[in-house]
Amino acid sequence: QVLLVESGGGLVQAGGSLRLSCAASGRTWRTYDMGWFRQAPGKEREFVSAVRWDRSNTYYADSVKGRFTISKNNVMNMVYLQMNSLKPEDTALYYCAARDDGSNWSDPSEYDYWGQGTQVTVSS
To answer: How many whole angstroms separate alpha carbon 106 and alpha carbon 47?
Structure first.
């Protein structure tokens, strides 16, 4: 069992930055791959970024590549998403998620645990 709680969302102007945090708990969470997804009103939940459980690889959606950075700190029991050069189209509810097995990093159905989400709003 893995419990995830996101924080760090807010309202920023285009071009600004935010750092989202995901606090993880559970005896086996460190062996899970971790991902960030987002969902805007009227749209499907979409993949943003993911990091392999052992931090050997990271993955990014084309829309955020070069602007967002995912990291995983096992000592602090935290997963982060640093978001720079934010755009209005980044506005969404952002979710932290964990999976113990899968083959497609961008498929939300492969993730087993989800946080409650944190809202990111980017104004123009």
So the answer is: 5
